[in-house]
Sequence to fold (316 residues):
Amino acid sequence: MKQFIIFSKIFMIFAFCLFVSNVYAYSLNITQQTQADQENIFYISKNASKEIFFNINTSYKKQGLNQMQEPYITVDLDSLDSSSNISFTTSNNKLFFRENPNISFSLTANPNNYQNKTTRVVLTFSLFDEFDNLLDIQKKYFYFKANNEEIDYLTKTGRKPRFLGYTLSDRVIEFTDINQVFIVDVDFLIDSYEYDHYSLVCETSENLKTKITRGVEGKNKLHVSLDKQEQFTEKHIINCFAKDKYESYHLKPISVFIFLDNVFEDEVSEDPNDSFLNISGFFSLGNLSDIGQLNLKTILIVIIVIMMFAVLLSKK
Fold:
């Protein structure tokens, strides 16, 4: 009986620690998709609105115990300075989800003859479970600065051209020969026919060589080839932006795959004699951390069975 009491106390402590670790293991991930003009700084024209896009996701998912409510994320907006001549709106302030959320969210600045000012804004993202328990908080701070040099920015039509979108001729490139060269057409859609105010800028890894040629009416050609001086890896991403003097629009990424014969032969193959080391490595601290990923009910059932078996042995 004494042993059973000891085992019961150990079990309760373990179950409590497991519950706490699961509750606090979940966090919010906020990805800003609109590039700032400087770090956390956006330049605002006198009367042209500015929209900033985000992606929200979290590892938390509904536990299935409360059928009446879903987990949710709240978004609170606070202006830390006088907000005269400018207002801010959010696409939503309460976002419900069940599991694996991939939520789009936007913040819009609406200026009204906004000049000679700087306004600070903070977005507070809060993650709640289906029982209204707060699991995590993330804050994002932004500075909105008036574009006081706007007279140099205006087009010959007398206003800033609107960026209406773009087209990509290809979003996936596959190299099967080291001498191949691919050309991706990137065409900007801009009103007022003021195409000269936007340029294409692309970033990628050292494995790839890129060159941009510019045509008329917002037409661009991105030339992609392999840098023969580099050690190749299989997959790469090309990130491109449509940039004007003050703003930058992130285009959808272009995926590049390299499938060349005899390129990856130098990779070290696994030695069969290392199987013992691989098995022992399973019990390393890095893998033990994955235990938290298991289903909580399954872990508790296994522990209860072990305790009952231990009690039976002790009676013998």
Q: What stands out?
A: DSSP finds four helices and 18 strands in the chain. Helices lie at 2-23, 275-281, 285-288, 296-315. The CA atoms of residues 123 and 140 lie 5 Å apart.
